[in-house]
Protein backbone atom coordinates (compact mmCIF):
# COMPACT_ATOMS: atom_id res chain seq x y z
CA UNK A 1 0.00 0.00 0.00
CA UNK A 2 1.34 3.41 -0.96
CA UNK A 3 1.08 6.49 1.24
CA UNK A 4 -0.13 9.52 -0.70
CA UNK A 5 1.36 12.94 -0.03
CA UNK A 6 -1.47 15.43 0.23
CA UNK A 7 0.35 18.75 0.42
CA UNK A 8 -0.64 19.71 -3.13
CA UNK A 9 -4.18 18.36 -3.13
CA UNK A 10 -5.50 21.10 -0.87
CA UNK A 11 -4.85 23.64 -3.61
CA UNK A 12 -6.17 21.68 -6.62
CA UNK A 13 -9.26 23.89 -6.77
CA UNK A 14 -6.97 26.93 -7.23
CA UNK A 15 -5.07 25.41 -10.15
CA UNK A 16 -7.86 26.00 -12.68
CA UNK A 17 -7.50 22.51 -14.18
CA UNK A 18 -9.82 21.24 -16.87
CA UNK A 19 -11.89 18.10 -16.40
CA UNK A 20 -9.55 16.30 -18.83
CA UNK A 21 -6.47 17.40 -16.84
CA UNK A 22 -8.02 16.17 -13.58
CA UNK A 23 -8.86 12.83 -15.19
CA UNK A 24 -5.34 12.50 -16.61
CA UNK A 25 -3.89 13.38 -13.20
CA UNK A 26 -5.99 10.59 -11.69
CA UNK A 27 -4.58 8.13 -14.24
CA UNK A 28 -1.03 9.27 -13.44
CA UNK A 29 -1.61 8.88 -9.70
CA UNK A 30 -3.05 5.42 -10.23
CA UNK A 31 -0.11 4.27 -12.41
CA UNK A 32 2.74 5.73 -10.35
CA UNK A 33 5.54 3.83 -8.67
CA UNK A 34 6.62 4.79 -5.13
CA UNK A 35 8.18 8.24 -5.39
CA UNK A 36 5.94 9.40 -8.23
CA UNK A 37 7.55 7.91 -11.35
CA UNK A 38 5.05 6.99 -14.07
CA UNK A 39 6.10 4.92 -17.05
CA UNK A 40 3.31 5.19 -19.61
CA UNK A 41 2.66 7.09 -22.80
CA UNK A 42 0.22 9.98 -23.01
CA UNK A 43 -1.90 7.85 -25.34
CA UNK A 44 -2.07 5.02 -22.77
CA UNK A 45 -2.92 7.39 -19.95
CA UNK A 46 -5.52 9.23 -22.03
CA UNK A 47 -7.13 6.00 -23.22
CA UNK A 48 -7.39 4.87 -19.60
CA UNK A 49 -9.75 7.78 -18.88
CA UNK A 50 -11.34 8.07 -22.33
CA UNK A 51 -9.40 11.03 -23.76
CA UNK A 52 -8.39 11.45 -27.39
CA UNK A 53 -4.71 11.93 -28.19
CA UNK A 54 -5.19 15.67 -28.66
CA UNK A 55 -7.13 16.02 -25.41
CA UNK A 56 -4.50 13.99 -23.53
CA UNK A 57 -1.73 16.15 -25.00
CA UNK A 58 -3.51 19.38 -24.03
CA UNK A 59 -4.27 18.06 -20.54
CA UNK A 60 -0.66 16.92 -20.01
CA UNK A 61 0.63 20.34 -21.11
CA UNK A 62 -1.62 21.97 -18.51
CA UNK A 63 -0.43 19.58 -15.77
CA UNK A 64 3.18 20.31 -16.72
CA UNK A 65 2.58 24.07 -16.75
CA UNK A 66 1.27 23.83 -13.17
CA UNK A 67 4.31 21.68 -12.22
CA UNK A 68 2.10 18.82 -11.04
CA UNK A 69 3.84 16.62 -13.61
CA UNK A 70 7.57 16.95 -14.15
CA UNK A 71 9.48 15.60 -17.15
CA UNK A 72 13.12 14.51 -17.11
CA UNK A 73 15.44 17.05 -18.72
CA UNK A 74 16.23 14.56 -21.49
CA UNK A 75 12.45 14.29 -22.17
CA UNK A 76 12.70 10.50 -21.94
CA UNK A 77 9.76 8.90 -23.76
CA UNK A 78 7.04 7.47 -21.52
CA UNK A 79 8.51 8.82 -18.28
CA UNK A 80 6.77 11.34 -16.06
CA UNK A 81 7.24 12.28 -12.42
CA UNK A 82 4.53 13.54 -10.14
CA UNK A 83 5.57 16.51 -8.02
CA UNK A 84 6.81 15.24 -4.65
CA UNK A 85 3.96 17.10 -2.94
CA UNK A 86 1.37 14.83 -4.64
CA UNK A 87 3.37 11.62 -5.21
CA UNK A 88 2.91 8.38 -3.26
CA UNK A 89 5.55 6.71 -1.15
CA UNK A 90 6.21 3.23 0.21
CA UNK A 91 6.39 4.32 3.85
CA UNK A 92 5.70 7.25 6.16
CA UNK A 93 9.46 7.77 6.52
CA UNK A 94 9.91 7.94 2.72
CA UNK A 95 7.08 10.47 2.52
CA UNK A 96 8.56 12.67 5.25
CA UNK A 97 12.05 12.52 3.70
CA UNK A 98 10.70 13.34 0.24
CA UNK A 99 8.62 16.31 1.45
CA UNK A 100 11.55 17.71 3.42
CA UNK A 101 13.88 17.24 0.44
CA UNK A 102 11.36 18.82 -1.94
CA UNK A 103 10.95 21.88 0.30
CA UNK A 104 14.73 22.34 0.40
CA UNK A 105 15.03 21.90 -3.37
CA UNK A 106 12.22 24.40 -3.99
CA UNK A 107 13.93 26.90 -1.69
CA UNK A 108 17.22 26.38 -3.58
CA UNK A 109 15.49 26.80 -6.95
CA UNK A 110 16.24 23.23 -8.02
CA UNK A 111 12.60 22.07 -8.08
CA UNK A 112 9.62 24.11 -9.24
CA UNK A 113 6.79 24.58 -6.79
CA UNK A 114 3.24 23.74 -7.82
CA UNK A 115 1.92 26.90 -9.43
CA UNK A 116 -1.58 28.28 -9.55
CA UNK A 117 -2.58 30.95 -12.06
CA UNK A 118 -2.50 34.39 -10.51
CA UNK A 119 -5.81 36.18 -10.98
CA UNK A 120 -6.89 39.42 -9.35
CA UNK A 121 -10.39 38.06 -9.72
CA UNK A 122 -11.57 34.74 -11.12
CA UNK A 123 -11.77 34.71 -14.92
CA UNK A 124 -15.30 35.02 -16.29
CA UNK A 125 -17.11 31.85 -17.24
CA UNK A 126 -17.42 31.33 -20.96
CA UNK A 127 -20.91 32.27 -22.12
CA UNK A 128 -22.59 30.13 -24.74
CA UNK A 129 -23.19 32.08 -27.93
CA UNK A 130 -26.71 31.70 -29.29
CA UNK A 131 -26.97 30.39 -32.83
CA UNK A 132 -28.09 32.89 -35.47
CA UNK A 133 -29.57 32.33 -38.86
CA UNK A 134 -27.33 33.35 -41.74
CA UNK A 135 -28.81 34.43 -45.04
CA UNK A 136 -27.61 32.37 -48.00
CA UNK A 137 -25.50 34.22 -50.54
CA UNK A 138 -26.86 34.76 -54.02
TrEMBL record:
Top-rank taxon: Bacteria
Entries under Gene3D superfamilies matching the protein: Winged helix-like DNA-binding domain superfamily/Winged helix DNA-binding domain
Protein name: HTH marR-type domain-containing protein
Organism (species): Streptomyces lavenduligriseus
Region (Disordered): 113-138
